[in-house]
Amino acid sequence: MSVPDKVDIVKCYKNTYRSNLRRRLQKLAPRRDIPA
């Protein structure tokens, strides 16, 4: 596996993790002040 592939995987993982975290936060407190 080349280095760019690893970078892409890490970037994709971070994006997925962040969106999952945001979704969980919105479920706990569905307010408008949470940036989309």
Summary of the model, kept short:
The protein has 36 residues and is mainly alpha-helical. 72% of the residues lie in helices and 0% in strands.
Run of helices and strands: H
Q: Rounded to an integer, what's the Rg over CA atoms? A: 14 Å
Question: Helical content, roughly?
Answer: over 70%
Shape: rod-shaped
How many strand elements? Answer: 0
Number of helices: 1
Mean pLDDT: 81
Tell me the span between the first and last alpha carbons: 34 Å
Question: How would a crystallographer describe the biggest sheet?
Answer: none
Low-confidence runs of at least 5 consecutive residues: none
What structural class do the secondary elements suggest? mainly alpha
Strand residue content: under 5%
Could you explain how this protein is built, in words?
The protein is mostly helical. The chain is 72% helix and 0% strand. It is built from 1 helix and no strands. It has one helix at residues 3-28. The protein is rod-shaped. The mean pLDDT is 81.
